[in-house]
Structures are given as C-alpha cells and as structure tokens.
UniProtKB/TrEMBL annotation:
Superkingdom per UniProt: Bacteria
Protein name in the entry: ABC transporter substrate-binding protein
Annotated InterPro entries: Bact_solute-bind_prot3, SBP_3_CS, Solute-binding_3/MltF_N
PROSITE patterns: SBP_BACTERIAL_3
GO aspect biological process, one term: amino acid transport
GO cellular component: extracellular region; outer membrane-bounded periplasmic space
Protein family per UniProt: Belongs to the bacterial solute-binding protein 3 family.
Keyword Manganese: no
Pfam families (alphabetical): SBP_bac_3
Lineage, top ranks: Bacteria, Pseudomonadati, Aquificota, Aquificia, Desulfurobacteriales
Organism of this sequence: Desulfurobacterium indicum
Domain Solute-binding protein family 3/N-terminal: start-end pairs: 37-256
Gene3D superfamilies hit by this protein: Periplasmic binding protein-like II
C-alpha cells in the first residue's frame, strides 16, 4: 500500500511540474473585452504626443491614436500617466495594458516587453536658449546637457559627445525650467518635442542642428501576448488605410505625414 501511495505522489509531483512549464496565454485582449475598457499609459508632459492642455484634458497624437484603437476594439479607454522611467515597469506589472508614450523601439527594450509596428519616426535633437552659439552636438564639450531618466537620449548624447555632462531629470517640465533658468545649457531629446517647445517659447528657445539619431516609436505590450499585439497592429494599419492616421498627424504636426506605418496585405 505504501508503495502505491509513493508512486501516486511521484506521478502527482511530475504532473504539477509538467503543468507549471506549459505556456500561459496572457489574454490581454480577452481581459479588456470582458472588462469593457483598455488601460493605456501615456505621457502627460511630452507635447504634442501626450500632454495636459489648458482645459486640464490629456490630449495629443498618441492619445488620439489610442482612442481610435480602443474604438476599433469596441472598448472604452482609460488613460494613466507614465514617464520614460515608469512606462515599461508599469506595463510589466499589469498596471497598464498598453504603453503609447513616444517610446523608441530599441533592441534592449524588446527584451522585457514586445512592441507593435512603428507608428512614428523621429530623431534626437538639441533644444537650447536662443542666445546659444552652438551649431551641433560637437560644440557641447564641457557643457551641461539635460536628459530624462529612462530615456535613451542621455546615453545617445554621450556617444556622440563624450565630454558633455549629462544632467538627469525625472520629467520634462523640470528639465525645461532648468534650461530657462540657465542651470543647464541644453536639453537633448526627440526632435518633434524640441521643435514644439521652440515654437511655443516665442523666440526664447531654438533647436540646434539636425537630428543625429533614428528614433522609430512603437507601442509597448507585454511579452508573448500576440493576440493583443496583432489587434493593436491591425488597428494602427486600419487608421492608415482609412485616412485617420493622416488626419491625426496633420492635426498635431501641421503637415501631411512624411512616412506612414507599414501596412500588411490582407
């Protein structure tokens, strides 16, 4: 009897071990459809992609695009603020279902999470006060250059100008204030944000030189969640095909898109 019981326990242990190694379907698409809404992490301080307007509303290119995606999926949308530093941890922890936060698709970032197709294409630039005499990143040796924690702009800038001193901030408003007060000589981040800040400053700020990196934006989804990633990819491609993408693009960037996200044949 003892021998039978021992055999039974051994088989049970093997069964538990086998089941624990079976792939678990993430099922985000099913979850949000059951829940009735999709939780999306967006930035609140990165105009024109995601920011708070004068009415206190969260608006921007990323916001309009995820509104379209939520409608395509037949669910409501709940926005949650993320920063460059928190967006991937909040996705991994399940706090948000999707991250649409001007996030460059890098190979290193693709290890802990997955990305959708690229939906916007930018490059890194430099924002400085209008009295700055620099012509490019080459002129920032020994200068204090602000970057945001969790973004790739700080390490990128060090590669092209190792003699610059990178000063890190948690969010963009803090870096912008430091620049205006002369505590840093410049901010380095994506060109579109820099150009928008220069325009809004009414001559107090300007963009230095041309973009010096390639920054394709992708939306972040959890690893091994292919049904959900497919649904987001298809919705982005639908936006391109029905003209919504171009309409949103023109609304926020004031021109027709110079490059569209890829569209797969049906």
């Amino acid at each position: 009897m003892k021998r039978v019981k021992k055999l039974y326990l051994t088989l049970l242990a093997l069964l538990v071990a086998f089941v624990s190694f079976l792939p678990v379907k993430a099922g985000t698409l099913d979850k949000i459809k059951q829940r009735g809404y999709m939780i999306v992490g967006v930035k609140y301080d990165f105009k024109p992609f995601g920011f708070v307007n004068e009415k206190g509303e969260v608006v921007g290119f990323d916001v309009d695009l995820v509104k379209y995606i939520a409608k395509k999926l037949g669910v409501k949308l709940k926005l949650v603020q993320v920063t460059s530093k928190t967006r991937i941890p909040m996705l991994e922890s399940g706090t948000v279902d999707l991250v649409a936060a001007s996030m460059t698709h890098k190979r290193k970032r693709d290890l802990p999470i997955d990305f959708t197709i690229s939906y916007y294409f930018d490059g890194q630039a430099i924002l400085a006060r209008s009295d700055c005499t620099a012509k490019s990143y080459k002129d920032f040796a020994g200068k204090r250059v602000a970057a945001i924690q969790g973004a790739t702009s700080g390490p990128n800038f060090k590669k092209v100008q190792p003699k610059a001193q990178i000063v890190y901030f948690q969010e963009y408003p803090q870096a912008l204030m430091a620049l205006m007060k002369g505590k840093v000589d410049a901010i380095t981040t994506d060109y579109t944000w820099c150009a928008t800040q220069a325009k809004d400053s009414h001559g107090r700020l300007k963009v230095i030189g041309e973009p010096f990196t390639y920054e394709p934006y992708g939306m972040g989804v959890r690893e091994n969640d292919s049904d959900f990633r497919d649904a987001i990819n298809f919705a982005i491609q639908d936006a391109v095909m029905d003209g919504t993408y171009a309409k949103i693009y023109k609304k926020w960037f004031g021109k027709e898109p110079t490059r569209l996200p890829e569209v797969w044949p049906k």
